[in-house]
Amino acid sequence: MTMTAAFWSRRLGLGLVLALLAQPVLAKDVTRCGWYANPTPGNHWLTDADTTWDLAMQGGASAPGWDDLPAEAFDFESEDRWVRTNGSYGYGCACIKGRFASVASGQVIRVTSMQPLPLSRCLADPNLPEAEG
Questions:
Q1: pLDDT at 6
Q2: Whole-prediction pTM value?
Q3: Which of 26, 71, 90, 127 fits 49 for a cystine, CB–CB 3.0-4.6 Å?
Q4: Is residue 5 one of the residues assigned to a domain?
Q5: Average pLDDT per block of 10 residues along the chain, 133 residues long
Q6: DSSP output for the chain
């Protein structure tokens, strides 16, 4: 292999590696809607038609962006938006916008927003599993 060929071969290899590493950064935000659960302090997840997405676990890490959401993102106070199962803890219906890894992993790469919805929205969605509570 000539020096020029070796030079371009290394450059192309490096470019490919960088492109693969940048995939999560280049991923676009998507919106996932389903059952949002907060059954106990510090535990939060969303179950949509595909899987359960871990948002935060007590004593563990939170998805990037989760702790930066405004208070309005958690406005589930009305009866048509929240089912209490453990004191003030329970579940509701919500859409979460962000970046998500594979369905098999259930990993959230980044949360950019959450919108509480009436329970009727999730109850009417035939693709969602029954709410756990």
A1: 47
A2: 0.79
A3: 127
A4: no
A5: 50 43 66 97 97 96 96 92 95 98 95 97 96 77
A6: --HHHHHHHHHHHHHHHHHHHTHHHHPPPEEEEEEEEE-STT-EEEE-SS-EEEEE-TTSPBPTTGGG--GGGG---STTTEEEEETTEEEEEEEEEEEE--TTTTBEEEEEEEEEE-HHHHHT-TTSPPPP-
